[in-house]
Amino acid sequence: VSRNVSRKIKSSITGTRAPPRHRHRTRQQNPGPMATAGEDSAAELLLRAAALVPLERYALAALLLASAFLYRFLELHVLGDLLRGLRGGRVALTYHPDSQVYHRVAAKCRSLHGRYLATPWLASPHLQTLFLGIWGRPPSVTYRRQLYTVRDGGTIALDWLLASDSEDGSSCDGTISSDDSTPIVVVVPGLTSDSTAAYVKHLVFSMASNGWNVVVGNHRGLGGISITSDCFYNGGWTEDIREVVNYLHQKYPEAPLFTVGTSLGANILVKYLGEEGGSTPVAGAASICSPWDLLVTSRFISRKLVQRCYDKALAIGLKGYAKLHQPVLSRLANWEAITSSRSTREFDHHATCVVAKYETVDTFYRKCSCANYIGNVSVPLLCISALDDPLCTREAIPWDECRANKNIVLATTPNGGHLGFFQGLTAGRLWWVEPVSEFFSALHDSPCMHRQKTQEHGLQSPLESSIDKGPYVNLMEDGMVAAVTNEDTNIHESLDKHKQIVSEMEGSDGRVNVQQNGITSVSQDESHSAVKNTSGTEDNEPSAQGPVGSQEQREELSTDKIRDAIAPVKKSINQLIRSQGRSVWWLAYIAVVTSWPLLGTLGFFLYRKKFRNSSPAKRLLRG
């Protein structure tokens, strides 16, 4: 159209005639070979124009695309730090409004009310985690090793770093006196980690520099120690930390005990604190980068590509741990299946569930997750987690449970990775070590430090529900009825003694040999001869009365023995009634109410004939 208009304008100006329309239409409808050649030449011209662009421009564009991809893939936050003016992210605290642990302890920790800025060239959770595992820049630490044997025959390596060891030029024999009041910090490492891990050395060196004695409780089979029993550690195995804590408390009763758990060790520690409740001798604790819920964490690390890389790396570490103890583990589980595991879940299926006797992997994860025990923690506990943790997802953090417990303070940071938290241009420090040190120091100087509760009748499970303390009725073999409580052991012992006395009295030889509290009394024949001699010397009684008097004394002696044996039973039952009296009456009331309709119906059917023949019944029927 534009060409036709231009031609008309030119023709009007020059006076020439415009070409006919049909020719132009024919030329458009039937393009010739020259038009095809023009189209090909346009494509060739485009390629020639693209070839004229310098290669540096293409390299720059590829670099920008790769940078954007890596920025997203590695979860870098350099731009975010620059936009915040390199001030870092604020530490968010979650706690109960009436928590004395927060108001008297955590409120004095300066680092918990500040900000955390990651090392600029490690501004990524993945970079921090990898740098910690590969290098970490740990301080120089020399441990003193102590081997401890647990009850099942297993061996645990306890690596000590005393406060005197960190002082320059100090001379110490490496021992602690039993009356030493210097606080002791027990460190529980993470999965396949021991005292040689970089983050453990950072923590140990910092606490020892502050004047505290530190001991690292290595897991079974780690730290260069062989497996000496058929028990292996796992994410829910709390027996080792329980025995180590009790051993240290008994050996150093004047020294307050503090515990720190990292990664999987944090799950073990929090689970132990929840199981023990107020009966643990631990004065304070800290949980760093805990997985909280093992089932949620297991699904998280198998979700994305980068998390699956971590999962495979952890599986390789677990298989390396299994190879160290192949003679024992191959006897307990399928060794070929263990070596072919490509993920932590497969390893737990073939090894952990078989050795620890769990039905399924999900059952193992559910039962061993420390999130189930948060509500029963009675020890001041500081929990630190990073929201960008590539292993322990924020989805597993029990926010409401931590807020409901007055003994827990949860601190979360936007960045930090898994146990990384590097800070400074040289990445020479771990940020989480400072708040742990401040929290323990403030707790040690405050009245909020936990004190172990003493129990008169032995240890009792803190997770035992109130229904377990009710007076369940137990029918004994001799027909006696007793309530089953924590004191049932004393009752059973007394009843056994009573049955022993009765059975011996009914013997054919007529001899009674009573053993009570380790003291053996004389037999009945000896007492009879003694009574006979005394009766013969006093007042010269007739010989005819001798057998009668001896028989009466024999009955009185047996009655006294039976009374003495039953006395502890009566005492225990009286104590039980006094302590559980209200529960007994409630049980009787419930029994009457629930059985009354059945008994009323049964009585009506049994006595319906008498009821019909009675005069009131006849009057009622007539009316």
Automatic annotation (TrEMBL):
<dbReference type="GO" id="GO:0034338">
    <property type="term" value="F:short-chain carboxylesterase activity"/>
</dbReference>
<keyword id="KW-1133">Transmembrane helix</keyword>
<feature type="region of interest" description="Disordered">
    <location>
        <begin position="1"/>
        <end position="37"/>
    </location>
</feature>
<feature type="domain" description="AB hydrolase-1">
    <location>
        <begin position="183"/>
        <end position="424"/>
    </location>
</feature>
<feature type="compositionally biased region" description="Basic residues">
    <location>
        <begin position="1"/>
        <end position="10"/>
    </location>
</feature>
<dbReference type="InterPro" id="IPR029058">
    <property type="entry name" value="AB_hydrolase_fold"/>
</dbReference>
<feature type="compositionally biased region" description="Basic and acidic residues">
    <location>
        <begin position="552"/>
        <end position="562"/>
    </location>
</feature>
<feature type="transmembrane region" description="Helical">
    <location>
        <begin position="584"/>
        <end position="607"/>
    </location>
</feature>
<keyword id="KW-0812">Transmembrane</keyword>
<feature type="compositionally biased region" description="Polar residues">
    <location>
        <begin position="520"/>
        <end position="537"/>
    </location>
</feature>
<dbReference type="GO" id="GO:0047372">
    <property type="term" value="F:monoacylglycerol lipase activity"/>
</dbReference>
<feature type="region of interest" description="Disordered">
    <location>
        <begin position="520"/>
        <end position="562"/>
    </location>
</feature>
<keyword id="KW-0472">Membrane</keyword>
<dbReference type="InterPro" id="IPR050960">
    <property type="entry name" value="AB_hydrolase_4_sf"/>
</dbReference>
<dbReference type="InterPro" id="IPR000073">
    <property type="entry name" value="AB_hydrolase_1"/>
</dbReference>
<comment type="similarity">
    <text>Belongs to the AB hydrolase superfamily. AB hydrolase 4 family.</text>
</comment>
<protein>
    <recommendedName>
        <fullName>AB hydrolase-1 domain-containing protein</fullName>
    </recommendedName>
</protein>
<dbReference type="Pfam" id="PF00561">
    <property type="entry name" value="Abhydrolase_1"/>
</dbReference>
